[in-house]
C-alpha cells in the first residue's frame, strides 16, 4: 500500500522522471502529466493527495492549473506545490497568493523536494483526521439537534391546547423557551365541581435538565389536583415531590390557583413566583387599573417541611388575569434600566379586548423594551379571561 | 461580570460576590463555595452579597444548596449586605425566613 498519491506535472521528461524515481522509492504512488490540461485529465481518473507542478508549461501553465484545482470544491483541498525558477516570473508570495500551498524554486535538489513532500503528507494526514473528526462532530450535533427539536415539540405538547376554555373562563398563552427547550411549564385542568385548577411554574436553570423537571412538576400538579380541591394541599404535595426527587439546587417557583367562577373568586398559593396581575374588567379591553395579587412564599422543592399559605382574591365576570414567569419581568436593558413588576404592570394597563392580541401586544412591548437583545430566559405568558 | 473572593476570618470563611448572579456564572460560584467548604470546613460561612446587582433563580438555588452543605457539616451559613433588589427577590420567595440574614459583614461574623 502506498503512502499516498502524488501527481507530477512538468513538460520536461527528465524532471518528471527524477521526481517519479524518488517518490516511488519513498513508496508514493505517482501519476505524471506534461501540462495542466493533461494533469486535470489524470485527476479525473484518480484523485491525488498532492500535486507538484511546474509553472511554465505549454497549453496550461502551472498558475492556471493551480487556480483551477483550488477553485473547484472537490479538489481544492489537494496540497499544491508550485515549482518555479526564481527569475522573476513568479515570486514565492505570488505563488501562495494564487492558492498554492508551497513553492519550490528551481533548480532544486530532489532531497529537498522529498523533505517537503514528507512534511506535506504529515499535514495532509492531520487535515484528514480533523476532517474526520469534524464529520463525526457534525453528525453528533445533528443528532443532538434533532433530539432537542423532538424534545421541544414534546414539551410544547405538554402545554394546554389553544385557544382554551373551561367553565366561566377562556385562556391563551405564549411560550418562548430561551434554548428551544426550557424549564417553564403551565397547566390548566377542570375540576369535578366546576372550578378550574391552574398552575404556572418556572424550574431553576435552563435547557434539558430544567425541561425534564418541568415535566415532573406538571405530573406532580396533576396528581395532587386529582385528590384535592385545595391549592394549599397541592403546594405542600408538590413541594415534597420536588424536594425528594431533585438535587439541592433544583426547585421551581410556581403560582397555583383554583379558579371558582361560581364564587367570583380564586384561591391561590404563591410559591416564590412573580405574583400575577388581576385586571378588573380587563377582558373588555381598554385602559384599566391592574392589581398585583398579594402573597409570597417559598419556592417548591427547597425543603420537605416548608410551610405555605393560601390566599383568596376576587375574580369577577370580565376580569382578566395575567400570569407570567420571571423571564418577562426580570428584563434588564443594556443601559441597566430594569422592567420589573412596575414596568410590566404599566404595559398591562391598556390591553386589547381580544386575549390573543393582548398576549401578542404584551410580548411585543417587553421585547421592544429589551430590544435588540433576545430574551435571555424562558418566557411564558398566560392570559385568563372571566367570561359569562 | 462576576467577581468572587474567598478568605478566612478565624473560624469563619467569607465569600464576597460582586456582579450579576445568573445561570451563566453559577458553575463558577458553585466551585468557589464547594472548595471553600471542603478546604476550610468552616464553622461559619459568610456570603457577602453587597455587590450583587441581580440574582436569578439558579443563584438562589446555589445559596440554598450552600446552606444544605454547611448544615451537613454542622456549620452555619450567614448572608449579609443584601442590596434592595436582591432583598426583594428574597422577600418574594420567603427566603428571608430561610436564611440567617445580617446587615453588615461584621454582624454576620459575630452572628449577632
Describe the structure.
Chain A has 388 residues and is of the alpha+beta class. Chain A folds into two domains: 5-132, Rossmann fold, CATH 3.40.50; 159-386, Phosphatase 2c, domain 1 (4-Layer Sandwich), CATH 3.60.40.10. In chain A, 38% of the residues lie in helices and 25% in strands. Chain A is built from nine helices and 18 strands. In chain A, the strands form four sheets. Chain A has a six-stranded antiparallel beta sheet, covered by helices on one side. Chain A has a five-stranded parallel beta sheet with strand order 2-1-3-4-5, sandwiched between helices. In chain A, strand 8 and strand 9 form a beta hairpin. The longest helix of chain A is centred in the middle third of the chain and has 49 residues, at 110-158. The mean pLDDT of chain A is 90. In chain B, helix 1 runs parallel beside helix 2 (57-72). The longest helix of chain B is centred in the middle third of the chain and has 16 residues, at 57-72. Chain B has a five-stranded mixed beta sheet with strand order 1-2-3-4-5. Chain B has helices at residues 26-40, 57-72, 84-92, 105-110; strands spanning 2-9, 12-21, 44-55, 76-80, 100-102. Chain B is an alpha/beta fold and 112 residues long. Chain B has a single domain, classed as Transcription Regulator spoIIAA (2-Layer Sandwich).
